[in-house]
Amino acid sequence: MKVSYNWLKDYLDLTTEPAALAEKITRTGIEVAGVTQMSAGLKKIVVGHILSCQPHPDSDHLNVCQVDVGEDEPFQIVCGAPNVAAGQDVIVALPNSRIADNVKIKKGKMRGVASMSMICGLQEIGFADSVVPKAYVDGIFVFPESIEPGTEVYEALGMTDSIIDLDLTANRADAMGMHGVAHEVAAIEDLQPHFETVTVAESDVTTASQISAKVADATLAPSYQLRMVQNVTIQPSPLWLQTRLWHAGIRPINNLVDVTNYMMMTYGQPLHAFDADTLTGTDKQIEVRLAQAGEKLVTLDEAEHELTTEDIVITDGHQPIALAGVMGGLASEITPQTTNVIIEAAIFERTAVRKTAQRHNLRSDASSRFEKGVNVADVQVALDAAAAMMAELGNGQATAGVVSPTQLAPVAKVVEIEAQRINHVLGTDLTVETIITLLNRFGFAVANDEGHLTVTIPARRWDIEIEADVIEEVARLYGYDNLPSTLPTGAMTTGALNATQKALRHTRHFLEGAGLTQAISYALTTPEKAQQFMLRPATATVLDWPMTQDHSDLRMNLITGLLDDAAYNVARKQTDLALYEQGRVFLKTTAEQDRPHELEYVAGLLSGNRQVKSWQVTAEVVDFYTIKGVVDALLASYNLVDDVRYVATSEFAEMHPGRTAAIYVGEILVGFVGQVHPQIAKANHLKETYVFQIDIAQILALPMQTLIAKPAPKFPEVTRDIALQVAESVTNADLVAAIQAKGGQHLVSVQLFDVYAGSHIEAGEKSMAYTLTYLNESATLTEEEVTAAFEKVVAHLIATFDAKVR
To answer: Binding residues for Mg(2+), per the UniProt record (predicted)?
Structure first.
């Protein structure tokens, strides 16, 4: 909510400077995002009157203008705006002036013609495109009323006003209108707000004789009121109204539409205006109902929407003309030809409004207010004020009376609380009189019966419901800084990580030490991506109301998020990637299960070069064994009791069928590692990419062993090398297990150091060479002991694998 300080002064006798006021507002519970003044940094920008405008002699789109800027002689200015014309009052940046972004304007020539300065559009002096009137978006701004040439533009355009940007939470929707903000600031500054009394000059024609209204179900629109203004003239709004709107972030349209937006900003009550003559039928009936299946509506943004039976619509008795509380229909919009207008003020069922806005992707200022709540007491007041102002600005006549098929009467809420209770919660020692004074400043009536307070809450503060709300109001007005502070008493518990937290932190630190960078992806993804790279079968968890179609399902893997991250980097020429993500996946055993199981996973991705080329080394490309080495070291760091096994698999459809291994700890599947299927990689615009995914939750549930440090051995190691020619189907894991099984008590390590398959070996076979290391920690090993143990290994390998010793 952008709050104009000058507008606020219409209601309050403020003397506090804007920056100081913003600080006070923040300290009482509503955060202020910032205070800005648009004229800051600008200089020498004035109003100019165009005396003449002639085509440039050497251009088909430039014009040479003679402009009165209040000096002795007119300025010659070359201007390329398509809407420039003689007789206009415009914005002129004088020589050596400063416009938006600190741009300095100097004298110059344009295609040989001297130009003293520059005629500006609103954007060039700092206004956003979104608030510039459409007639001036692509050209210069023309003042709608005459202003003395040479006058600085800042005051006329409201640029000297300070704009306080309130960052409102959902529960403080009462401050989404200037009146609500005025009440809040009045309490902070201990002032009394003064608002104008609304009176409507009515014609002899009654509203009921011109239109009728019907609400099919009162729960859809508990309050629905209509007024009518006849014989209006559509024209631009006066400059004061336009400036208030664009400082609030709203684009001025015309005098009638601007009034509805102005009243929304004033009271926080959204209004809508219909062109009465566009309604079909002769009875001119407005009906509020649920949409029928198959009905369609073209909204003001010219988009067609297929409605559902959950959408509340405004109809003319025959067809929809607006989505209730969200956006009007294009067919009934206010146009330059409009002469009779129907003004709508209402309270719509807030949940339905929010769902409709989400369903059709039509979030608006109106829907934001309706879904958070509006002040029941101001519905009729805002309607009357809009009718009076439309009649005044449009030179029309407001018809007599209001058509109102449903109407809510404002009801004050009553909260009873003990003054002692307030002091107990806040830790204060405030007197009853002080508490009553603080509550009175909010406009709350308080009855005191020996410390028992009966607090009457006006309808404009619908966020106050219970005792805690009243206590909060006392605390924030008394000042949080003034509340007493005490140290906690009682036994202190030293903070520490539990076993799971330690393991998760260890995982992150280990992978970062291995050179991987942490990535964080959305937990919401598409249905297709959610069900890829799954460790085990599961049912998807689908959101009822996703923000977008790409965020409809909770993820069941981490790899698709890493692939998205990799694609993002590759698109920006970053091709050497080493990423990991640790997070939760969401798995449901059955579709009927209400809430999914949340499991901790860790996944990694490597692509490109693992060693970058330099003068000293050649580039080395990531391969299967690079990422397997990372996984192997990670799993080893958990000190698991059971052995880790890698089994070749083609079970994972998104992985390369010949370069993927399932990871087992004992007999339990805990993850997989391998190359992403080339088709998946191509779809993500990636080259050869390797990934792993491990179920950390399952790992942590497995038995682990404690490592015990030992001193360095006193006796030497003895090594033996062996080269075995075996069938290609024999794996390294099989050979290592066989060697360890027969290696004896002194065998401490088995290391593969060479693999060969080629012309010197029979087809279908390969050579694998190992180094076996023997160590006796209590004595020196003899040659005979090592040879005997080694020969047992050789014999076992020959017998088991039909191996040939080379």
So the answer is: 463, 469, 472-473
Phi, psi of 195 (to 5 degrees): -115, 145
For CATH 3.30.70.380, the residue range(s) in the chain are 718-805
* C-alpha dist (Å) from residue 245 to 7, 89, 259, 630, 634: 11, 21, 10, 59, 60
CB 369 within 8 Å of CB 250: no
Q: How big is the CA angle at 273 (ends 272 and 278), to the nearest 5 degrees?
A: 130
Give pLDDT tens digits for 624-635: 999 999 999 999
CATH for 202-406 (3.40.50.2300, 3.50.40.10, 3.40.190.170, 2.30.38.10): 3.50.40.10
Query: Residues spanned by CATH 3.30.56.10 within the chain?
Result: 2-37+164-189, 413-482
Q: Kindly indicate the confidence band of residue 549, based on its pLDDT and cuts at 50, 70 and 90.
A: confident
pLDDT at 485 over 90: no
Complete edge-to-edge strand list for the sheet that includes strand 718-727: 747-756, 765-774, 718-727, 804-805
Look-up of token digits 């580039």: 619
Can you give the C-alpha Rg of the chain in angstroms? 38
Please give the class, per CATH, of domain 499-700.
alpha beta
Q: Which of 483, 469, 468 is nearest to 427 (CA)?
A: 483
Architecture of domain 718-805: 2-Layer Sandwich (3.30)
Tally of CB atoms within 10 A around 194: 11
The CATH number that domain 43-156 falls under is: 2.40.50.140
Instruction: CATH 3.30.930.10 in the chain: give the residue spans.
Output: 499-700
What whole-number distance in Å separates Cα of residue 7 and Cα of residue 196? 13
Three-state DSSP at 177 gives coil
Q: Are the C-beta atoms of 312 and 220 separated by less than 8 Å?
A: yes
| Residue 196 labelled as part of a binding site | no
Q: Which fold has domain 2-37+164-189?
A: Phenylalanyl-tRNA Synthetase; Chain B, domain 1 (3.30.56)
CA 386 to chain centre: 34
User: What confidence category does residue 597 fall into, taking pLDDT thresholds of 50, 70 and 90?
Assistant: very high
For residue 303, the number of C-alpha atoms closer than 13 Å in the C-beta half-sphere is: 9
Q: How many CA atoms lie within 13 A of 38 on its CB side?
A: 24
Among candidates 164, 89, 96, 154, which has minimal Cα distance to 127?
154
* 472 in a known ligand binding site: yes
> pTM, whole model, 2 decimals?
0.71
Helix (H, G, I), strand (E, B) or coil at 696: helix
Contact 47, 149 (CB under 8 A): yes
| Angle between helical axes of 350-359 and 365-372 (0-180°, round to 10) | 140
Roughly how many angstroms between the first and final C-alpha of the chain, as a whole number? 82
Q: Is 473 annotated as a binding residue?
A: yes
CATH number of 413-482: 3.30.56.10
pLDDT (mean) for 427-447: 95
Percent of the chain with pLDDT over 90: 84
Please check the confidence at residue 764 and state whether its pLDDT lies above 80. Answer: yes
316 labeled part of a ligand binding site: no
Number of H helices and E strands in the chain, helices first, is 20, 42
Give the integer Cα–Cα distance in Å for 186 and 163: 18
